[in-house]
Specification:
Low-confidence stretches: 412-417
Largest sheet: 12 strands, parallel
Protein name: TIR domain-containing protein
Keywords: Endosome, Glycoprotein, Immunity, Inflammatory response, Innate immunity, Leucine-rich repeat, Membrane, Receptor, Repeat, Signal, Transmembrane, Transmembrane helix
Subcellular location: Endomembrane system; Endosome
Main location: membrane
Helix content: 25-40%
Number of strands: 21
Pfam family, one: TIR
Mean pLDDT: 86
Radius of gyration: 42 Å
Shape: elongated
Length: about 575
């Protein structure tokens, strides 16, 4: 069998075969809503009938073509046919040769609706069937059964769903098509083909098309089960390598299309048993070079290869691969686009150059310049480093220390001169147990004991001097602290929100703002639904970053502590809204 005889023909070929100079009726695009006897008046002797592009929605139960005794070619594509009943097309069982029901995906995409193909068993003379672009993927018969079908177009469906199950429900889907020669399962979103699927394809299969899928690998070891296979199309996939072992191709295998993939190399022993291979397509891959010492069998002299495509591959053109240009000049194999599109990609100096134009005697070795650059760099480095260390070693060390200090940030050393003894004075309702627990177990732990900078906090019950009056201790705490943190929450009985100490501290902070022009207030709201006080609303508009709310989501608490550290370390005046600050400072 010759390679061109094994290729899958299009439906136009069959139309020419069965309809040339035969009585043909074209009823396509006639807005036919349903089939009845009136539609076919005067067509009793028709051999070919085209009913495509009518978008009719009809369930075929048999009897629609009773008066058409000679119909051999029927095109019903681009409609909305329901093929569930086994008596569909039953009246054409002795005459129908070609049936096109492609692009009838309306009922196949309906959820919860089953589909059956039992009508195929009744069409005893059917040779060509197109089920393409129907979105077939589930709730259908587990097997297609026909003893006459030879050509099946099943592209544009969902074999990826059918063959991806754990129960192997559709592994034998094509097995009972005992006379099948040509099978097209392209554009089925296949990412892989299981070995069991390949083993259960009809032994009579001669041509198999699996192009335009997403295949990353293929069960090459099981290809020997298809002893009559002569044509295999795996183009437009994602194959990135071939198995490095001998594959037992059949004695009739003559055509292999691997173009438009991601192959980077051809194993030297892969084609050892492909003795009858005549056409090999390797264009549009990522092949850079071939092994000269172990050249694949089709490239060797005496092979049966007649046609080879190599264009649009990123070939490397250097001294190690110059033999390949000689091979291309002297081979008798037909290589399309050899003088126009078989180009060099590496090295960069040869990018875009026609491979045949490379002169073997003046080839360049890309590793020479690279080795020169590397050796020059190492020589300069190991010569300059000791000299630089001797001359500028201390200066480099000092600069690194300055940069490291800038990266770590500035923090005041303990015991240094300062008017403030504390970073913050924390004012809260000591009678509220929930607030006390939050201050001692959350606030002090996160600010005094953890983090890069440890803050010094002043607490009423811990740091006030015994014996002094409350107002003296309060005055000292406010004025000896950089910031004053007000922890506000509803009281335990829900009546008042602030006690006398908090109110007096607030007045002192406000007085400090007027006297010293220092805004030291930081407000922490523990309640999710805090009353909308006018001061709080004004404070949020004036300096939003000084009003913090305790988050209820534990994942947001690290952000809260980061904002708290920023509020205690920075001057509130820097965060003032420019539109309002002039009225206050």
């Amino acid at each position: 069998m010759e390679g061109n005889e094994c290729q899958i023909p299009s439906l136009l070929n069959f139309k020419k075969k069965y309809c040339w100079r035969k009585l043909t009726f074209d009823l396509s695009q006639n807005d036919i809503l349903s089939l009845n006897e009136k539609v076919f008046l005067g067509m009793e002797n028709a051999v070919c009938l085209d009913l495509s592009y009518n978008y009719m929605s009809q369930t075929l139960r048999g009897g629609q073509f009773n008066n058409m005794k000679n119909l051999a070619f029927l095109n019903m594509s681009f409609n909305r046919l329901d093929l569930y009943h086994k008596d569909a097309f039953n009246e054409l069982q002795s005459t129908l040769k070609v049936l096109d029901v492609s692009n009838n995906d309306f009922h196949f995409k309906m959820r919860g609706m089953g589909h059956r193909f039992e009508f195929l068993q009744n069409l005893t003379n059917l040779e060509v069937l197109s089920l393409a672009n129907n979105g077939i993927g589930m709730r259908i018969d587990q097997r297609l059964i026909s003893r006459s079908l030879q050509y099946l177009y099943f592209n544009g469906n969902h074999l990826d769903i059918m063959w991806n199950g754990d129960y192997n429900t559709y592994t034998h889907f094509f097995q009972n098509l005992t006379k099948l020669k040509f099978l097209d399962i392209s554009s089925n979103n296949l990412k892989s083909v299981k070995a069991e699927v390949l083993l259960n394809l009809p032994v009579s299969l001669q041509s198999l098309c699996i192009r335009s899928n997403s295949l990353k690998n293929f069960p090459w070891q099981n290809i020997s089960s298809l002893s009559n296979l002569c044509h295999l199309d795996l183009s437009h996939n994602s194959l990135n390598n071939l198995v490095p072992q001998e594959i037992k191709f059949g004695t009739h295998f003559s055509f292999l299309d691997l173009s438009h993939n991601r192959l980077t190399s051809i194993p030297d022993n892969f084609f050892n048993k492909a003795e009858s291979l005549q056409n090999l397509y390797l264009s549009h891959n990522q092949i850079k070079e071939l092994n000269h010492q172990h050249l694949p069998a089709p490239f060797q002299k005496g092979s049966s290869l007649q046609k080879l495509t190599l264009h649009e591959n990123p070939f490397k053109c250097d001294c190690n691969t110059s033999w390949f240009a000689v091979y291309l000049r002297t081979t008798t194999v037909n290589i399309p686009y050899l003088t126009t599109r078989v180009r060099c990609e590496y090295p960069e100096s040869q990018q875009g150059v026609i491979l045949l134009s490379i002169d073997q005697h003046s080839c360049q070795d890309i590793y020479g310049s690279l080795a020169f650059l590397i050796s020059s760099f190492l020589a300069v480095t190991f010569t300059a480093l000791p000299l630089l260390k001797h001359l500028y070693g201390w200066d480099v060390w000092y600069c690194l220390q300055v940069l490291w200090a800038g990266l770590k940030g500035y923090s005041q050393l303990p015991g240094s001169d300062s008017d403030h003894h504390y970073d913050a004075f924390v004012v809260f309702d000591t009678r509220n147990p929930a607030v006390r627990d939050w201050v001692y177990n959350e606030l002090t732990v996160n600010l005094e004991s953890t983090g890069h900078r440890r803050f010094s906090l002043c607490l009423e019950e811990r740091d006030w001097i015994p014996g002094l009056s409350c107002i003296d201790n309060l005055h000292s705490a406010v004025h000896s602290s950089v910031k004053t943190v007000f922890v506000l929450s509803r009281s335990a009985n829900g009546t008042e929100m602030v006690n006398g100490v908090i109110r007096q501290a607030f007045f002192m902070v406000q007085q400090r703002l007027l006297d010293e022009k220092v805004d030291a207030a930081v407000l922490v709201l523990l309640d999710e639904m805090f009353p909308k006080l006018k001061y709080l609303q004004l404070r949020k508009r004036l300096c939003r970053k000084s009003v913090l709310s305790w988050p209820r989501n534990p994942r947001a608490q690290p952000l809260f502590w980061n904002q708290m550290r920023m509020a205690l370390s920075s001057d509130n005046l820097q965060f003032y809204d420019n539109n309002m600050s002039e009225s206050f400072i």
